[in-house]
Every structure is written in structure tokens, then in C-alpha cells.
Amino acid sequence: MTTGWRRLTVGVVGGGIGGMSVAIALRRAGHEVTIYEKSDFAGEVGASVSCAANGTRWLHEWGVDVAKGDPVVLKKLINRDWKTGEPVSVYDLGDYEKRWGYVYNMFHRQYMHAMLKESAMGEEGPGTPATLLVNHRCKDINLQTGKICFEDGSTAQHDLIVGADGIGSTARRILGIQPEKRPSDSSCLHANVSTEDAIKAGLVDYSQDSALEYWGGQEGKWDKIVLSPCNGGKLLSYYCFFPREHGDYTNQTWGAESRPVEELLQPYPQLDRQVFGHLAIGKEIQPWRLWVHDPYPYIQRGNVCLLGDAGHPMMPHQSQGACMAIEDAAALGILFSPRYFSGDIPQMLAVYQDVRLPRVTKVQAAAAKAAYNINERIGFSFNKDIPTYKVEDTKKVLTIEEMNAYDMYKDVEEKLAAKLGSPYTDKFICGLPIGLELPNGIIIGASA
After folding, report:
1. 18-46: average pLDDT
2. 388 in Cβ contact with 375 (< 8 Å)
3. Which residues, at least 6 apart from 95, have a Cβ–Cβ distance to it below 8 Å?
4. Taking Cα atoms as reference points, which of 157, 204, 208 lies closest to residue 36?
5. Rounded mean pLDDT of 222-233?
6. What is the tally of structural domains in the chain?
């Protein structure tokens, strides 16, 4: 489409999953990438991270060796009764790969990060390996010149700068965005349970289900347990939600000393005894700060843009946080590829914003709803025949089709054509095929 492509020097602020993803995408697009990580180690904390088909597809497109992440390929989503543990709602993923072309992976964060880091910085694959500089805490960015100033007094100059520095983003502040945020009404403690330890204790081996499993969430309350297996099923990662008045961790940080197991168990006197037994042998019990952010008005200025949690922090209840960061990275990789990039960086970042903001804003809103009503969660929102099914607005439920039938190339082309004042004739709207009927009754392209 264009002839003005040029190789850029790219500075990525933040070396987490989002930072490594965009380093891969822009490396594959032919650019020279340097990643600046504020700590002395570019890694991840926590445990499991979901990567549905809309994220997995880009890992494959970039040539990432997914097996090195030691994932669990999910077969089901299971919602269980709070007290008995009996399944209330099951969403079968048996035909998931056939329908969407890619599997639903569940990774351990540290394994996923190492997998991405190898693709970003390794010698294999197209493009120049990215460079990683640790102990580089961003202090300021000159939006006119592309100069990054670090707290140690050093500086760096880049054509394009990507702020991938997480929920407490410095890059976001420099862009002039002041988050409208409030503490969630729920708190969360995370715990890891070894499958081997659970079996030794005579407890159910949930790893055999290869499923994301939920206890509660049907009653319109904040009590909910989420189990996600990772490391090939050897580790069970538990996210334990409860009303904030039972424990407020909004100002705690992950990585401190493990909380006592009694604190983890205290909110759940009536919980199914099997999963309660799992939590009783939980280790590495850590608080997870939960803040609800309203959508930001913009995610780019000049030659600087935001990615992932820096640009659109969201509640975890749609399991789409990592996928949205990966999609951000993919959008930048496409826009700055030889096929589309004409040499005008601000123009491409304006298109990036037009592509990403509507989609991430919808997922943000849906994640906030699913926090207290699991029927709003992608997958379970399809199971309308259960007695407890109720959603806020059937027309606004986020569907699996919207996530996985999405064609980002078509979305980019439509938004780029609008920016250039060119006609767009493909039968897609915002990356979805015209005529696609969603389970919530919406038909893409149909008049209201």
C-alpha cells in the first residue's frame, strides 16, 4: 500500500509480557528495538496468565516457540457451586481450536515471559534481536524529540517510543493522562498449590480437568475462587476474591512476605471442602491490588504510545489482560510493517489508537461486569439455559465471536483508509465480518 517504509529505532519502556511482545512484533516488522527495564531483572511475578485464541494466534504468527512456555491447553470452563463444588455451568472448549484456529493456552507468567524474551532477543527468526537494558527507570520523555531521560542521568534517543510500563506507568503520566480510578469493591489473595501436594493430601486432582474453574460468582456477590492450572498441570494457581471490607489490599505490593494461610481461608467458612483443602496447603500467598480504571481518552501523542496495562488497565474477570497487550503489540507490528508504514509515525500511532481504543474499552467494561456476575464472562455468557443465568444487558454481553473472529488486518485497513480519506470496500466493520451473527442477537453491520 505504501512506499515510504524506513527502519526505525524503537525504545520500549518496560520489559514485562507486553514489552517483550511488542519487541517481537516490531523486530519482525524490521525495526531496531531496545527495551528499558526499571529493575535489575526483566521478569514477571505472579503465577498463571490466560492466552485465548486471539492472543495465541500472534504468538504463532511471530514464530514464538509456544511449547517452551509449558502451557496447559484448556478444554473447559467450569463454574462450580460455592458449597458443594458441583458444576453449575460448563463451557466446553472441545471444538475451540477447530472453530478459531488456535488453542486456549494457560501459562505460568514467568515461563511465558522467558518464552517471549527468547523470541525478542534470540538469534532465531526474522529481524535484528532486541537489546535489553536493565536498571533503566524512565524519568521523562521529550514528546517532540523522542529523547528518554532515565533516573541515573543517562539518556536515549528513539524514533518511536512505546510505554509498556504497567499499571503505574510513567509514560502515561508523561503523556498527560490522569487516571480516573477507584478501588474495586473486591479484594484478592493469590496462592499457588502444587498438584503433587494436593494428591498427597488426598484431595481432588483438578489438573486432570485442564480447565479454568470457578467457585461462586452466580449470586451477584464478590466471593469467587478462580483456579487456573499452569506448568503443564503441575501447578494450580488460585485467585481468591472477597468483599474489600474483609481485607483491603489496594496499597499492598506483590512480592512481599507470604501472607498467613489463615488470612486466605478466613473469608470462606462455607466454601466447598475440596477446594478449601487446596487453599489450606497454599503457598506464596500474595495480595493483588484491584483498581477500576475508567477508559483513557487517548493512548498516544506524537511519537509515543501506550500498550497493555499502561494504556488500558482492566479487571481480570474476562481473562483478557495479556491478550489485549499482545493484540496491542500485533497492531503496532502491522502498522509499522513495510506493507503499511509510509514513514509518518504520528499518523500510524493515530491509527493505532483508532484500532485499539474501541476494542479494549469494550473488554474493560465487560471485565468490570464479570467481576460480580460470572454469566457476563466470555463463554459462560453463552450458557443461557441455566436457572441462575442473568446479565445486565443481553445486547452488550461480550461474546467469544467478537474476540476470536476478529481480523486485525481488516481493522487496520479500515481505520487507515479513514485516516487517509480513501475508500474502504472490504465487508468488515472494526475487524468483524459484516453479517456475522453473535449469540447476543447482534448482527454485525445490521442497522439498529
Report:
1. 91
2. yes
3. none
4. 157
5. 95
6. 1
